[in-house]
Automatic annotation (TrEMBL), chains A, B:
UniProt keyword annotations, A-Z: ATP-binding, Ligase, Nucleotide-binding
Domain CoA-binding as annotated: residue spans: 6-101
Organism (species): Candidatus Magasanikbacteria bacterium GW2011_GWC2_34_16
Membrane-crossing residue ranges in chain numbering: none
UniProt key word Nucleotide-binding: yes
Protein name (record): CoA-binding domain protein
Coiled coil regions in record: none
GO molecular function ontology, one term from the record: acetate-CoA ligase (ADP-forming) activity
Highest taxon of source: Bacteria
Family annotation (Pfam families): ATP-grasp_5 (PF13549), CoA_binding_2 (PF13380), Ligase_CoA_2 (PF19045), Succ_CoA_lig (PF13607)
Family statement: In the N-terminal section; belongs to the acetate CoA ligase alpha subunit family.
InterPro entries xref list: Acyl-CoA_Synth/Transferase, ATP_grasp_subdomain_1, CoA-bd, Ligase_CoA_dom, NAD(P)-bd_dom_sf, Succ_CoA_lig_flav_dom, Succinyl-CoA_synth-like
């Protein structure tokens, strides 16, 4: 979508321009006329003649010149009427500030609005938003009072009120913005469209999102991965609220969107390569570190400090965040002896002692930065009596100019360090308040560097029988059947080449005995009925049945089910081979739908432990081989697959393939609402997996 | 320990007072003479006559008047000599600033120093420290440049350099201090002594610790619990560094103390009732909230905000931190309709909308504070164009004065909110930078209120046979045996009345068959040898042996062990009853020693899962019934005990009792270095537990 008319309009009409000072419709005109925007501004207000020295027009169609962008702040009830006029005027960008749409229980009104824009090729931001700011051209098309300084951060926010806080706080931190977008209800333009646009925006270096709900995981993953792996990669950092149920419903009450499952978002961010900030504090930390540094080539951090305690705190966080402490070369060690006192710590973290002056900091930093075994540096300073705070800051600035390695700085203190911190900030040095924050931010920068290297290999199954599944689903839909129990779900899995044990559906004892003969071993008997989804609850399963017991057990099973579910329509008994596999583990594989993101695949350790340890991981579509492998690697139960405690290795590769087959099934049949393959038994390495039971729910 | 001579000296001698400006020995004299201290100051320097207008003395004994406190900053090699003179002078408090003791590989020097002080009843702070500050009497007995403002926080720090950063940052936050102590190597006075002293210090409201290593869990738990449950309870907040191995060794290199196991510290803080901050950022947040608020009576929080997004972020954190969203009464709901616009959110979080002015904030806050279903309030403000920032701050201050309920405030922004934040801070309002921080801090305040209510019930076992264990351990020690395998460990458990299966130690096949007859069922055969601690590794175990197989299996077992461990001294075969318990679970119970804290009891789910899920919890001595119950409750595997997924309830009560019995054993026999009871089988409710195997290692 071309959003130039939104961000770089040559002319702007404000429909709903108000003469009432302090009103939204007045603020926007003020912002457009007093903050340096050089384009044309046309206030539309049928009752006024002049506003901030500009002629007012009764409606947008009366404006004699071309209008690129229309900002709409009229009452909700007339927004669509106005939008028709905007369309007629051939305006190509619109921002609807007005609230009173989906978030107020008026989804139809919102749909009508978006349809007008879609048909007329109008890029629509909002409704229910604060507006848009482009500091580079001094365009404040919002009712936020302050124009943030220009810089490299594009900020997209699903909360309008948060924007004003962010602008104000960012100014204090000297974080500049390339674009500022309050996305509102996202009736048309959403984060994905904006990310695609910002990918080619030369002013944007980092994209930051405040998100309550996102739509269409596939589109987001595609857009972000394209950006990250493109010629001009930019990090995308997101904070997602509504993690808890209470938070999600609070969020729904103010944007009208369901927040969905946090684990699905976790998967989305991982697959797309979006850096997740878990708090606003972290978000700002990451913005500072990402805007000021190039990416490190590896994860080896050197810590230089004049204080032991903060050095230890930073070390803890370095390790906890998955980085490693750099081991410097013998040559560097030797060089350090020339610049440090004998009782300093020559091992990382480098404690250069409380009496370290600027020269000692600079000499150490130079040696460490030059060391080929160091990928990034964290400098800590506490204000001791003899500490040369400002001079040390300048030394760091000088060193930073001569290196490509990231440097993150923590001058720990208050008033004493304020001036030095300000100097460093305005000279492109990332300074953080506390050592832990500095370490964590550096870890995220490193993580992003790793993201860039991640490959995307598609699964490619040539052995699947899509037609067979289409028929099963069509037949079920024709019958009005949504829940497909085992007897219908297993053929679906078979068509997608999930390995299954031998099984037969039989109608009587004689057929059962014939089936057992073919299986030639112990069997499981399970009731087949479209009315019974949870067979074990009503005694519809008999396990470990010996061949000679089949007749009697068949009889008992039918009797029990008749008693416990007298109205159920019995379609027979499923006779299934029992597996005899000493080294194996029961996993669970499944999928459900997130209201915004779409189908989410889940894998985890099965049995009682899935509920107790909740050791599951999620993946979204489209799912690459790397994603599926990562899902398995993320499980603690992966240790079982890798042969925990001297046990045999299990067939993890086949588990990964099964995840891929399930993802393929979900891609091919979006009508699947839920699917459970439980248990999926993972056999020894090289022996594959077996799906023992399954159920499917269609939309 | 009476530390009055340290904190409230009428006269101070500085031994090692230096004429060299910028040196530590000079800074201390300057701090004592220029920052308002009104006591007598005696610089000791044999080479100088005057310093900062004061007469210098050649040594402490030459001072003609009584000296309460001696600050020592002479070279490490002569510190003990000086301390002898200090003792002779009958000085009762000493601060040794000098480094070069345990942390520099000189533990003997440190021991000698502490011995002199102990014998002469001198309270010793240090060595290797920054000193002590008591702002109330303007005593800056340290080389920190700045005197922090007086206030309610006592700060004890194991890192000297951290102190200067804390003082500087705290000033910015308007946090005041009652005492400031750099504890250094803690050769004599440690955190426990200081906590006991500060318990009775009227100026101290909150005690904060920066800790790398602590000693003697029992002493700490006793001191802190006494403080919390005493007539004048004060919260103790700690940040512990050296969580990771790399962090721990970095910490060791600068204080010479081993950091120990972080899980043991987690247990210590929980049992003692110490609030743990996981970062310096959190520490400061908690200090702000604890110093300004009374304790809430419950965990129901109301959030008032003019911005949806931050309200959602706060809600997430409220729930994640274990608090709940208050549901206000119908009466309050009705009152709210009179003061809020119709489209505000009348449910918690209360979104009073972006155009909320001070009056709306105040009216809402009053209604919410008066609601009996609200225990604490979180107020969020973002600076919208129409927001009355300063007036709202004043409204909050007014409301706070009329309520006992905690109020935590987040004015989210930068320059626009600076003045209002400053006003609130100086008027005893806790303001935090971000909504999540505000919510988390409130959660900690609530958690502390809960801590105060926690009971301490001692285990009281009257059925244990201490003598029998004494004999087993004495015999082993006489033999020079440190590792006690099953055959020696089980009798120890039997003496402490752990339920055991029937077992017999036999020497030959005939005795084995006789044992099986008495057991009357399947048995396990296990090799008995002082040389073999891990029996299964060398094939020394046979399980599920049928009575008729005993002879043959006995023979095979002996043969296998002879082959795999030809030199092992075989003392026979242990014949043990096999349990037949369908509903049961294998747990592991054990203990090891933390280098600083002492014996740590561990409980967890046994088998392969202990390693994969690391679902274990720890407890320290002395261990109350409540602590043991909490250890079990903290396990995810507790769900198995509570009957996960329709299974039978297991005997959790007996597991708790077993933890108590193990704690008693460890208390009675401190020579136990390690003990493992694995597996400890938990039977169905009412049927107890069974210890199937054990081993003990003595010091």
């Amino acid at each position: 979508m071309n959003l130039d008319s939104i961000f770089n309009p040559k002319s702007v009409a404000i429909i709903g321009a108000s003469t009432e000072v302090g009103s939204v419709g007045n603020d926007i005109v003020k912002n457009l006329t007093t903050q340096g925007y050089t384009g044309k501004v046309f206030p539309v207000n049928p009752k006024a003649t002049k506003l901030y020295g500009l002629k007012c027009y009764p409606d947008v169609l009366s404006i004699p010149e071309k209008v690129d962008l229309a900002i709409i702040a009229v009452p909700a009830s007339i927004v669509t009427t106005v939008m028709h006029e905007v369309a007629k005027k051939k305006v190509k960008g619109a921002i609807v500030i007005t609230a009173g749409f989906k978030e107020a229980g008026q989804p139809e009104r919102e749909l009508e609005l978006s349809e007008i824009c879609r048909k007329n090729n109008i890029a629509l931001i909002g409704p229910n938003c604060l507006g848009v700011i482009n500091p580079a051209i001094k365009l404040n098309a919002s009712f936020a009072a302050t124009m943030p300084p220009a810089g490299g951060v594009a900020f997209l926010s699903q909360s309008g009120a948060l924007c004003t806080a962010v602008i104000d706080y960012a100014q204090k931190l000297e974080i500049g913005f390339s674009k500022f977008v309050s996305v509102g209800n996202k009736a048309l333009v959403d984060e994905t469209d904006l990310i695609e646009y910002l990918a080619n925006d030369p002013e944007t270096k980092v994209i930051a999102l405040y998100v309550e709900q996102l739509k269409d995981a596939g589109k987001i993953i595609h857009a972000v991965r394209k950006l990250i792996h493109g010629p001009n990669p930019k990090p995308v950092i997101a904070i997602k609220s509504g993690k808890t149920l209470a938070g999600a419903s609070a969020s729904a009450s103010h944007t009208g969107a369901l927040a969905g499952n946090d684990a699905a978002y976790e998967a989305l961010f991982k697959q797309a390569g979006i850096i997740r900030a878990y708090s606003t504090n972290e978000l700002f930390d990451y913005l500072r570190v990402f805007t000021h540094n190039q990416l490190p080539v590896g994860n080896r951090v050197a810590i230089i400090t004049n204080a032991g305690g903060p050095g230890v705190l930073a070390t803890d966080e370095v390790i906890d965040s998955g980085l490693s402490l750099a081991q410097i070369t013998a040559a560097s060690q030797k060089k350090l002896t020339a610049v440090l006192p004998a009782w300093a710590n020559f091992h990382n973290p480098f404690d250069i002692l409380g009496d370290a002056k600027a020269k000692r900091y600079e000499a150490t930093l130079k040696i460490i930065l030059a060391d080929k075994q160091v990928d990034s540096v964290l400098v800590i300073l506490t204000p001791q009596t003899m500490t040369e705070i400002e001079t040390t800051a300048k030394a760091i600035i000088n060193c930073k100019k001569k290196t490509k390695k990231p440097i993150v700085v923590n001058f720990m203190g208050g008033r004493l360090v304020t001036e030095a911190v300000r100097t460093m900030r305005s000279d492109q040095i990332s300074t953080l308040q506390f050592p832990e924050q500095a370490a964590r931010s550096l870890a995220m920068l490193t993580k992003f560097a790793g993201q860039q290297k991640q490959k995307s290999t598609k699964f490619n199954f040539t052995d699947i029988n899509k037609k067979a599944v289409t028929k099963i689903f069509t037949d079920a839909q024709n019958r009005g059947q949504k829940a497909l129990p085992e007897a219908l779900a297993l053929p679906v899995l078979a068509a997608y080449k999930f390995p299954l044990p031998k099984y037969y559906i039989v109608q009587n004892e004689t057929e059962a005995e014939a089936a057992v003969k073919k299986i030639n071993g112990r069997v499981a008997l399970k009731i087949v009925s479209p009315d019974i989804l949870h067979k074990s609850d009503i005694g519809g399963i008999a396990l470990n049945v010996e061949p000679h017991e089949v007749k009697q057990k068949f009889h008992t099973l039918i009797k029990t089910v008749h008693k416990n579910a007298p109205t159920a329509d019995l379609k027979g008994i499923l006779v299934m081979e029992m597996l005899h596999v000493p080294s194996s583990a029961e996993f669970i594989l499944g999928a459900s739908k997130d209201p915004g993101l779409g189908a989410a695949v889940m894998v985890g350790l099965g049995g009682i432990f899935v509920e107790i340890f909740k050791d599951v991981s999620f993946g979204l579509l489209p799912l690459t081989k790397e994603n599926a492998a990562q899902m398995v690697a993320d499980l603690k139960a992966n240790e079982i697959i890798c042969g925990a405690r001297g046990q045999k290795h299990l067939d993890g590769k086949s588990l990964v393939e099964s995840i891929g087959r399930l993802a393929q099934l979900l891609t091919d049949f979006p009508q699947i609402k839920e699917i459970d393959i439980n248990p999926l038994v993972i056999l020894q390495e090289g022996q594959g997996v077996k799906a023992l039971d399954a159920r499917i729910i269609l939309e």
